[in-house]
Every structure is written in structure tokens, then in C-alpha cells.
Target: 3-methylmercaptopropionyl-CoA dehydrogenase
Amino acid sequence: MQYFKAPQKEALFVMNELLGYEKHYADLGFTDATPDMVEAIFSEAAKFAENVLAPINASGDAEGCKWEDGVVTTPTGFKDAYQQYVEGGWTGMTHPEKFGGQALPYSLNSVMAEWFSSANHSWAMYPGLSQGCIETLKEHGTEAQQKMFLHNLVGGSWTGTMCLTEPHCGSDLGMLKCKAEPNDDGSYSLTGTKIFISAGEHDMSENIVHIVIARLPDAPSGTKGISLFVVPKFHAGPEGEKLDRNAVTCGSIEHKMGIKGSATCVINFDGAKGYLVGTENRGLNCMFTFMNSARIGTGLEGLSASEAAFQGALAYAKDRLQFRAMTGVKNPDGPADPIINHPDVRRMLLTQKAFAEGNRALAIYAMKLVDVTQASQDEDAKTFANSKLALLTPIVKAFLTETAQESTSYGMQVFGGHGFIAEWGMEQLARDTRICTMYEGTTGIQAIDLLARKVVGSNGKLLTVFTNEVKEYCKSIRDKSQFNAWSNSIDKHIDEWHQITEDIMQRAAKNPAELGAASVDYLMYSGYIVVGYFWLQMAVVAQQKLDDGTGDPEFYKAKLHTAKFYFDRLLTRTRSLVSSMESGADNLMDMEEEQFNIV
Amino acid sequence: MQYFKAPQKEALFVMNELLGYEKHYADLGFTDATPDMVEAIFSEAAKFAENVLAPINASGDAEGCKWEDGVVTTPTGFKDAYQQYVEGGWTGMTHPEKFGGQALPYSLNSVMAEWFSSANHSWAMYPGLSQGCIETLKEHGTEAQQKMFLHNLVGGSWTGTMCLTEPHCGSDLGMLKCKAEPNDDGSYSLTGTKIFISAGEHDMSENIVHIVIARLPDAPSGTKGISLFVVPKFHAGPEGEKLDRNAVTCGSIEHKMGIKGSATCVINFDGAKGYLVGTENRGLNCMFTFMNSARIGTGLEGLSASEAAFQGALAYAKDRLQFRAMTGVKNPDGPADPIINHPDVRRMLLTQKAFAEGNRALAIYAMKLVDVTQASQDEDAKTFANSKLALLTPIVKAFLTETAQESTSYGMQVFGGHGFIAEWGMEQLARDTRICTMYEGTTGIQAIDLLARKVVGSNGKLLTVFTNEVKEYCKSIRDKSQFNAWSNSIDKHIDEWHQITEDIMQRAAKNPAELGAASVDYLMYSGYIVVGYFWLQMAVVAQQKLDDGTGDPEFYKAKLHTAKFYFDRLLTRTRSLVSSMESGADNLMDMEEEQFNIV
Model:
């Protein structure tokens, strides 16, 4: 099947009707990003996703990337699609005009990134990885470095990577071994092995620019001795000329569960020449600059899989005839009724739909905050947006990718045994999106970031900044009596959220393991509440539109039904999460390591 | 890695210390199945699983089955392993001596089936599929049919299949189209296409015997017009001689997410000669005979994946160094501490451990019931066992396979990004076990079987038969005060289970969709309670052993710790399931089909 349609109307609903993006763009001075222009760009992006990327998704998975003698060949059609992407000007959309970009808002690009990833997760990673590299050089590179690299990266003829992980160090970057020795000419020689480097080597661009973390010879141990370097595959001249080959080679590519069209590379630096980016030993700080957008980007990949799985399952559920409906014959001319009539199939479809639409609202809200942090002239507004973003980023990353596991699993389950068969595309979605809870910081890492670093680390202040907004909103709709039950539920959840935070902080003061013991439940609990807040707002807007008689009433009625489903059957998952969190750390920590043993 | 160790001690604990299998076997007249003999057989089975099957698991996945011109070649080593299995006498273990079997109990075989499937899910399906075929012919075949087929099947030189599914009909067998026309000689000519036929064609045995459901020319429509036939790949003489080829061909094999070493075949019957098994139009009734054991067998596949994923994750968690423990340095000589010290890693490992061990106790309890239904001379005992089995079978099938999705997902998650890489084996476990919630009746089908057919269909009686046992047990341990909290929790859950059943029945009297709307939550809810009952019993036995000072105290302490984890963090999942169930059908059924549409 491999059916995919970019959810333009859903995105525009969130941007225009829910979150006031027209004013948002105008306020930030994005004068080109008018509603008409946004729609025109979306329409082109949708065509590209549907007609160029989706058709090479299944074949890319079947074919995979090939490695031979250090050369990586991407699946048939990937290179050509990338060429079209470059020609369409997509690579530079959000970057400054002085580097050849179009200076459009971050959010505009990110909304469409969801669709590209829905259509072809593997392919979308190649241009996606360039963004981190561009951001690094834009923020922290010298003018000379920017001249050497940025025009080509923004134009798309060169692509970029981020080289962090080493075999013995993943999350714990303090254990980093890769070395950088200073040369006489001010450059550095890098030596070491990096693994899991997405887009580390491929045939889609003329050159590959690696951002590499490494240690200087007398760097302090741990994370305080990490510096950042830019190391190209081919040396670059001062104006971005492509010169001779650098000592950077791809040792192999990984055989993985999914995203098989994405080359996951072992990259060897054998005295490769590179340049220091930013200050010595402050490499991790430079990287934190765009950690939020990178993590939101991974969350979007999860969202993209939820959406695609929903679309596939829905099409099948309307088509597949099996059994008669429990409530009476629905398809008298056929031998059986479409399975969408069966309550449990609807439960699965509505779970997918509620996650896709609710998570999208949260994601587009987070993108709006990123826009402010990047483009606002108002320092207070920036600080305020940064506070909310600090809290929401780990939730976006982990909640959108964890729920994607459930949504893609239901994508298969709605198909029954057919879901397991490659040709329907459902199993590929599940395999591809499985990486999303692991890379760019596992769910466990996001959960510790949220609970320990953000919430407890700010003594609860970052939580309050966001929950004040939610409580204000609930107060503001008090006169809409039809929403009182949901609004009260959110309001009570907010109080409970604070209470639980307080409980955990008290327990953690005595036993620091309490933070880790509660963390993932806490993150998921937070996610259900936050997305519930967006479902409440979507329902209120939808009812207003119905009352006003504007727009497509079926679209708004669907929003109200889905909100009801969310409040009845998904938000209620907080009940078990609370029980688990409140049970404390002892049930995890009391068992001796040896007692886990297999006998 | 591909590490696997058969959990012999765990199985023996459940059989001997928890469920009184020694007396059970003696009561049923299995005089050969003494504890010593059981241990000796287990020891051989463990070696076979660990040394023969596990080593060809990853290679079998990478290589897959090959189809060419109707011929299917299984992965390297599969045929040889099967030959060793046949020579070891494993194929006939539970079958009557008159067909060349060893007449040992069903349960004995099933306990080991878990290990074979842990070691190599794909491979284990080939001998597994023969069982249904053998059971059918043993129960319903004529003496002539038994002579033609059973010796070879029991001896293993021939293998069998079950041919049910067709392209347009999966769960809804009433839509079956395959035709059987009577021949003059009393045989039938079968014409039609079957899909998803596991072990339908392969190179491991000399002949393949298909049990096929089809319609006679003037059969009533629906499930009441389905008859059962035996149709061999090669015709058979009266004493089991292999003769010329029958008109049965393999049209292709499926490309699937997992179990790639298992050939999933399209089988075409083009006027193939077969023989009626049992009575005309009563085919489905014949199949229900061993539905329980087939579904428990699929549940065991889920359990096997949970166990294997736990073993892999545990080994990695002890080995991988990353960060220091929150509670202080644990590995001062190393650069970081093993990740098993991190609370969230323990949460994942304990979830796997609690599911593997709790689910195994439930499974071995269900096997005991199957033994009684098969071998008891006491009709009352048989009826009683059948009642409990009717209730528990869909729970075993669906709960053990659904929790396997979580356990195998954690298997990957504990590894971080490495979990996504093929060489560690974790992603294969997740892919292989994904089929288990879909084949042999999806989770949705099991849930309707449990709630509508078994519980409501018996007006609650089948539920009461089991819950009386649980309540009796809770009463019997009332004096053990240390277990009062857990015992009271189970007791209250049992009351709630009845109350919820009552609620659903009342709602369903008005709206039959209420059954489907609650069904999967109801099944999972039931599963958590039932497994909680077994964790309670295991904890009580473990404490008794510690008090007595017999056996390995660390083993029993681990049981108590894991029980605590189960009661604190897994049984509490019933809270959200109750909320979802009690929310009723409207939040699923009120949305119009068109409102699901993608815009």
C-alpha cells in the first residue's frame, strides 16, 4: 500500500486556529511567512513528501545502504530525491540570507519535517543531520569557518553530521577518548573512532562536514574537557572550494532493525585535520545551544510514525471486511462489515488519532517557543520561552517517541496477520520508529533531564512557569460549562503533578535513587497531562467553530469526539503511573545485583 | 551475543514447589514422569536449546527462507537441527506408544517448548505445527487415516500443518471459499488458496501433511458449513508409504518483519486429493478440541521471548559501564558503574523478570489443567479443569504475548542505541515475537473470547470457578501477616473483577458494542490479577523455604523482591484499565466513520 497524505489541514488548524501563528510570525518580524505563503509552501512540501519520498520508502528499506571499501551507496532514488530537494531550495529554508538561506522561521520547516519523516524516515535523516552541523557553525564558528562551510551546507551541495558516540560511551560523554592534537598552523589533528554516525558517509552530496567532539591533550577529565571541532571529509578552501581528501574514513555501516536506508556509520579519524569550534573544553556547552531543537526533531520523527501508522490502519479498517458489526449489519451487500465497525478496532484507531493530533499540537506549541528563543528581540520573552522549552523538550522527545511505539504497533495490529507482512508497510513503520526512544538521548535520559535537571534542579520553578499557563487557561474557560469536567480534570492533574513533585523531592533528599526510580513514570505522566491540556484547547476551539458555523463541521466534530476519547481512555493512564511513582525506589534498589541472576 | 540459558531451575520451582507436579503426574498415571526423569529430560532439552538451536537463530534470521519454483529452502543448519531433534525422540514425546510415541504428559513437552522457542522461535515452529496435525488425526481421524499418517508424523520423518486462513478471511472463517468435491473412491478433490501457512513447504521432512478446512459442494454458508480434510504433499500408502506427488504447491512465501527462518507459505490446492476428517460440516468443532493447547503454545512463544530478552538485557546491564550510580560509586576501579545500578534500568529488568516468572507460573498452571483434560479418568475433575482452562486460555495467549512486546522492547531499551543493532540479538527477539499477538487469534479475538464467549456466555460461572480458588487461597494464608497487604489486594481485585463484569453485562444488555469496547482492557486487567495471584503464591512458598532453611536463599529472596515489584508497579496498572473499561462504548462508537477521515 504505502499510502501517505501530508496532514496539511491538521497542521494549519493547530497553527492558525489554536496557536495564533499569523500574529506570532508577524510579531517576530517574519514578514514573508504570511498565511498564504505558508499554505503555498506546505502544498509544495506535501507534494514532495507524497510523490517523491513515499514511493522510495519501502524500496529503500528492502535495498538498504551498501558499504564497500569505505564507500556507502544509498538506496535507489535517494540521491535523486535529495537533488530535487536541493533544487527546491528546501535545505536553506530557515537559514540566514547571507549564507544563501531564506530566513524563514524554524517552526515552518519543522512542521514539514514531520511529513518528510512520515513519508520516508531514513531519507529525511540526511538533510536533518545537516541542521545540527549548520546550527553549530552559525552560532559558534569563526567567520573563516563559516565561509569555508556554510554556503555549501545551506545550499545543500554539502551535508553535515554530528559525531558524538564512541564504542564505550553513549550517554556518558565524559568517557570520551577521541583526541585532538594542535598543529602548527592553528588546525588540529583528530584521532579516534566514532560510532552510530547517521549520514556519516553516503553518495548524496559532494562533501560531508563532521562536527566532532574530542579531547585536547591536557584537557580535564570528564565532560569539562570536551572540545568541538569541524572536520570535513574533503578539505575546504577559504571560499568553500572542495580540495583533497582528509583522513576521515567510514569503517563500516551497522545492520539494524530499521531505518535501513539511513547509513549508520563507524567513522575513523586517523589524524584528520580539523578546526576548533568555540572555546577549548567548552564543547558540550556549544552543543546545548541547539539540543532543544534536535530533541524536538526526534520527537517529530515519533509523531510522523504515529501519523503514518494511523493513516495506513484507517485505510485498511475501512476496506477489510471481517465479521458483522455487534450493533447490526453495516454492509448488507457485502459478505461482512468493514472492521472499522468493531469497537476494539476503533479503540486502536482512536488511540493513534488522539496521539497524532494531540502530540502535534504540543510539538507545534514547542516550535513556537523555539521561534521566540531564536528570533525575538524581547529578552524577557526569550527567557520565558526558554523556561517553558526547558521543561517541555524532554517531554516532546520522549512522549512523542514512546507513544509512537504504541501507535505503530496498533498500525500492525489493526491489520491482523497482514500487519506482519512487509508489503503493507506497517511493520516498517514500527521498525523504523523503534530507534527514536533510543537515539538523541534515551527515554531514561530524557526522564532524568526532566525530573532531576529541570524540575528538581529549578526547585520546581520551571514546572510552575508552565502550569501557571495551564491553570490560567482552565480559569479562562470556566463559563463554558460543557468543558468543566475536562477542565477540572486537567486542573486537578496540575495540582497532583505539583504534589507528586514535592513528594519525590522529599524522598530524594534522603535517597537520590528516588529520582531515577520515578523518572520515566513521571515523564509519561507529565506527557499525558500536557497533551490533555492541548486536547482541551482543541475541543474548545472546535466547539467555537461549530457555534460560529465556520469551516467544516465534521472536522470539528471529530476533534470533539477524539478529545472525549482522550479524556476517557488515555488521560486516565495517569492513575497507574501515579501508583507506580509513589511506590518509591526500594522495590527497585533492594534487590542485590546477584539476585537478578539467571539460574 | 546470542546468549541463552534454559531456565530449568525456574521451571522446576514452579512445577515442584509451587504446583505439586510430582503428585499431579502420579495421580494421572504418568508413572515414567518421576522428578528424576523430568530433570534428566530437561537437562537434555536445555542442551539442545542452548547448543543446537540458539547458535542458528541469528544466522537463520539473516539468511531467511528461500523460495524457488515452489521449493522452499530453510536456513543453514535448520534441517540438521531437525534431524537431531527427530533422532533424540523429541517429536513423539507426548503421543501414544501405539504410534511410536512415549506417552509422556503434555505439560512436560510444553515446559520445554518455551526453551526451544527462546533459543530459536522460527525453528521451533516447524515441529510445533506438527502437533496440531497429529492431535487432529489422533482425535478425529479414522483408523485408516491414522495408519497412513500418524507413525510418520509422530516419528518426525513427516511434518504437518494447519491450513485455515485465506486471503479474504482470517478470523472470520465463515467466509471460507476453499472447495472439496467428493470423488468416487471416497476421497475428495480440494481446490483453493490458503495463505499464512507456517511450515507449509520446506526441506526438513520427507512429506508434509496438511490439515485443511474447506467447504463441501452443498455445505451451509458460514461456519456451519466447514469440513476438515487431511491432504498430504505426497500421497501416502495404507501403511504410510510415501507415494507420488499430490496437487499441492507452494505459490510463494511471505516477506515478514520477523520469524524469517519460518516459511510462511501460500499453498495452492489444485484438485488435490484429500480425506474427510470427522463429520461433514463439523470441521470447526474438531478444531476446537485442541484450540486450548494451540493457544497456550502461542502464549509460550511470548513467554519465551520475554525470558530471552531478560537474559540478554541482564547480561548487558551488568557489563556496560556508563555514569556513576546515583547512590555512590559502585565500581571504583572502572571509569563508570555498570548500568544495572541505575534505578530505571532496574525498573526495566524487573518488569521483564516479573513477567517472565509470573507468566511462567500461570502457563505451567494452565498446562496442568490441560494434562487433566487429556489424561484424567475422573470426569468431574476433567469438567472442572476444562472450566478453568476455558477462562484462562485466552488470558494465557494474549497476556503472555502482549507483555512480551513490552519485555522485548525493554530488551532493546536497556542496550540504548546498541539494542537497535542486529548483532546483539535484542531486535530480532522484538521482531520475532511481534507476530504472537496476531496469529492464532489476535489479542482482540482472545479478548472477545474471554469476555463475551466465556464470561458473559457462562453468565459469570466460568469466572467464579476460578476466582473461588483464588479467594480460598487468600483465606488460607490469612495468618501469614507479612502477606496480608498483597493478599488483600488480590482479594479486593477479585471482588472488583466481579463488579466490573456485572457492570459490563448490564451495559451490554442495552448495547452489545459494550463488550467489544471493554474487551481488551478486560483481558489485560484479568491477566494482571491472575499473574498477581501466582506472584502471591510464589512469595509465600519462597518465604516458607527461607523459614525452613532449605534450598538457595538468594533464589527465594529474589522471588520476594520481584513479588514486591510486581505488586507495587505492575498490578497497579489495573487502575488505569478500570478507568478505561468503565468509560463505556460511546467514546468509541459515537464518531462517524467519515469523521475518522484524513484531511
User: Anything to note?
Assistant: Chain B has three domains: 8-288, 291-441, 450-587. DSSP finds 20 helices and eleven strands in chain B. Residues 379-414 of chain B form the longest helix (36 residues).
